[in-house]
Amino acid sequence: MMEPSERLNAWMDGYVHAWTTNSPEAIASLFTPDAVYDPQTAGGEWDGIEEIIEHWVEIDDDPENWDFQWIPVIEAGDIAVVVGRTVYHTPPMTYRNLFVIRFDESDRCTDFTEWYIEEDQN
């Protein structure tokens, strides 16, 4: 397993913090003003920081109801690929996650693509 860079570790810590707090400021600190967030859903991508914040806050996951672990798969130049696992407690659900993150020179995300699939609970 590869060790994440300081940049990726700090960004993912910020991602988990933003997810936990649902704070618009914490969310905005992760992305450039013109960033694109593509959750790979029928609703399509979220364009720009205002739309990213709007959709993120709508999800409103209870921070006491989930655990998240991640590991880097690859980091090369301005791109990082991360796999993760999200476990929701009530109702019990587990998701496998794949993130592709593109950074700018200030280590903020310009393009974020997320895939997730629910694990069978049997």
Topology of helices and strands:
Blueprint: H1 6-21, H2 24-30, E1 31-38, E2 46-47, H3 49-59, E3 66-76, E4 79-88, E5 93-103, E6 109-118
Parallel strand pairs: 1-6
Antiparallel strand pairs: 1-2, 3-4, 4-5, 5-6
Helix pairs in contact: 1-2
Rg of Cα set? 14 Å
* Total of DSSP H or I helical runs spanning 4+ residues: 3
Strand order in the largest sheet? 2-1-6-5-4-3
* Strand composition percent: 35-45%
What string, H for helix and E for strand, traces the elements in order?
Answer: HHEEHEEEE
Portion in helices = 25-40%
Tell me which CATH architecture applies here. Roll
Q: Name the average pLDDT.
A: 94
End-to-end distance, in Å?
28 Å
Q: Main sheet?
A: 6 strands, mixed
Question: How many structural units, i.e. domains?
Answer: 1
Question: What is the total tally of β strands?
Answer: 6
Shape: globular
CATH C-level class is: Alpha Beta
Secondary-structure content class: alpha+beta
Features:
122 residues, alpha+beta, Nuclear Transport Factor 2, Chain: A, globular
